[in-house]
Amino acid sequence: VPVMVVFKAMGMESDQEVVQMVGRDPRFSSMLLPSIQ
Question: Which GO terms describe its molecular function (predicted)?
Fold first, then answer.
């Protein structure tokens, strides 16, 4: 299951909102990128 789908199921409405919640840590950014594209 893509990570973004899980976050949206938990109530996040936009990709930007998820990225802001996760933060700017490069480790997490690299995990989110495939789900955003």
Answer: DNA binding; DNA-directed RNA polymerase activity
